[in-house]
Queue: 2 jobs
Job 1
Amino acid sequence: MSGSINRVLVVDDSRLQRRILVASLKKWGFDVLEAEGGEQAMEICRNDPPDLILSDWMMPGMNGIEFCREFRAQGTDKYSYFILLTSKSEKNEVAEGLDAGADDFLTKPVSSDELRARISAGERILRMQRELSEKNRIVSETLGELQRVYDAIDKDLIQARKIQESLVPELSKSFGSSTVSLLLKPCGHIGGDLVGMFCPGVNRIGFYSIDVSGHGITSAMMTARLGGYLSSTYFDQNVGMEKRFNRFYALRQPEEVASMLNARLIADTGIEEYFTMAYCIVDLRSGVLKMVQAGHPHPLLLRKDGTAEFIGKGGVPVGLVPDIGYSQEEIVMEKGDRLLLYSDGFTEARLESGEMLEAEGLLELIRKCDSSQSGKEFLDDLYWNLTQILSPEHGLEDDVSATLFEYEGP
């Protein structure tokens, strides 16, 4: 008989009972083994468990219940269907057999038709059990492979984070008496935010805050590219600078820088990412600051007298629309003034109430910070205050970054 059941073990101390059962089983095409007691049956099962066991309940030495319990206790990847043969029919005795690990019962004397029906039922159960075991094996192997792949990706992402962190080698730097401080907190291993600063010469600095669309690896690759376009080390690659008289580098106007970056992204076919940006240059002698805002959140001007003002006119993100012009605006900073550029990871952070922080919420966070702190400490305090009011359910859903310029005069 083909199917899940091929080998059957008959266990009975009665030679006549075994002969009757074996004759029927062999007629149906099964490969039949015999044992006259539980001990002998266990020896057979330890070497190669059969598909089906027919065991008498009442036997001298190890009875059917004890044999069933010991057989189940040995543990094996292959499941065997166990039928107890008994004259017992009381519910508590049946429960005892089930508790020992029996799958079914047959009352003696055994009817040939009923035995065939019970074996067929057992075969269906074994087939389902073995199909399930095979699926579980495949699932386990797949999960193991996925774990290995995940571990490899995780290792790569950790290295990618180190590379991304190298794009921001200094989190705070003084230029004369003024200071630029940076904050970069990806919501995952790597992120799509970028902050930075550069100085081509005395009294001239440029700084920026960028937020690439999307999240994860694609956005991080774009930030790496932008880090090269606005390099603080290789001025010849920095689109924010131009060489003059083959002697020194000068800062390009912010509106020109935005247009150049926009043209480069539009020219690259296959790139769907775009980014928002706030980019500033400042003359430290006069305090004149020029800024272009390209779809980035409105920079926050924090005056020395305690007043605060959101500046900028919005603008269009870079890499979204071809041949678009960008306009810049100019402000004069006084000694003690600060300018904060930040990503929407701040203003769109989800609070415990379910609402977003928004601009007014950002102002409230800033009021909680000690204004006498250094720039880096101020940004760290600002970020910590944000984490204290985030929704526990959602946590940090976007990268958080900021650039703080503190002007202290020439």
Note: The longest strand covers residues 193-201.
Job 2
Amino acid sequence: MSQLQRPVIIQSQSIKLCCPRVAYRPPLFQRRRQSIHTKTVTDHDINRLASSPLHPLTLADLVKHGRPPLTTAQLLTSANFTLSILPARLAHRIQSLRNLPFIVVSNPHITKIHSNYLHSLSTLLPWAEREITTLEDEIKFAEVMADLVQTHSNTISILARGFLEARKYISPTDVTRFLDEHLRARIGTRLIAEQHIALHLSSQPHRKIMHEPEEEEDMGYNGVIDTKLRPAKIVQQCENIVGEICELKYGVRPHVVINGEPEYTFAHVPVHLEYIITELLKNAFRATVEQAHEREAIEVTIAPLPDDSPEAEYNEAIRKHGEGHVITGADQGNTDLASRCFTGKSTSPSPTADQQIRPLAHSTPGVTIRIRDRGGGIAPENYEHIWDYSFTTFNDDQASTSLSGGPGGGGGMDALNAISGPGGDGAHSLAGLGYGLPLGRAYAEYFGGGIAVQSMWGWGTDVYLSLRGVGRVEDNPYI
């Protein structure tokens, strides 16, 4: 059997995103959590929590408890902060799902997501009226956070298939509006939960209680934030994964040349960068090979962003683009704008402050990454749709093919789509659903970055990814 004819068996390879720090599954995920207590969630609970203003997540929230390993007091403070903001976020998501048209919510996939949120809220309610004051309670609470993260690991793919099946009953515009809000809110919820889990796993006080061996401390990390993240290393790791799958699919693979400042480092959340780079390289590899230009290098240029003042940057963004283009609480899914369009009224008050997501200090190193390919560019008729959730435009035949996993239940699947998404969405689950670029842009924009695309039709494409770092964590005033 030739290499081009060889079946593409992605699941057995257990392909994950690149950074071992992110791809790992800690003991909290591996142990069976049989001791988690739940409480029945009532409509009154949901209405009460959904009526409370949401806490707009900032980068300072992720690092204000200190650099690991945390002391007992710091670890308890992190747990109580996490507990103080997650129940309302979950209630807002439940309320927004309930405000979809009834026939849409009745879809079994959408119902599954609704049930998952109810389950997670039911695990938090027993803790909501109390304060976590002991390490024993903190360990139990960390189990609850692990359960929450695992419960929602496939949210994106389940929602995608639910809306695909219900596409006759809701417009593509309404689906896009709902998903933009819901998926951005999910980014924040996962960050909050995973940050506490990471702080828990890297701190020492609970190890004596659990009789766990001490691990070598990783000084580069503050929870899920890598304070010495080197973009060039992420690019190389993602190139290896995408290249191997490309070679399986096409029998050839382009190579990547990294220039600019490959030794540059800054502080950011690596899983975000990994997902975005993977998506962008997938597009570049596919276009390059299909244009038979695999001998042409894909050029990745890494350049530090200027250390601009956040205030100056904020004012300049308003001057150029207006208020609507500045990153706000609404951009993080902190207001239920999508739900409002279905009911004619708001299901929740606006946040107390519609804040820009600002970095920790005036001097905030960031990075711009340009990915240049010779893949022929983007056809003019497709250019304006590159940020759409593509499945919203599927016809019946395309929808049937996607839902069945391709002709023959998966045989025709595009291998370059079969890479795990952020937050654990499985290998086959997102394939062909058109989530890559819009979800990548959501991750880039969440903390004030962005993606811009410039296409030269008939030649190639330049993609510019900008990410603002979290600042100099060791100097920030919150620690």
Note: The chain has one domain: 17-475.
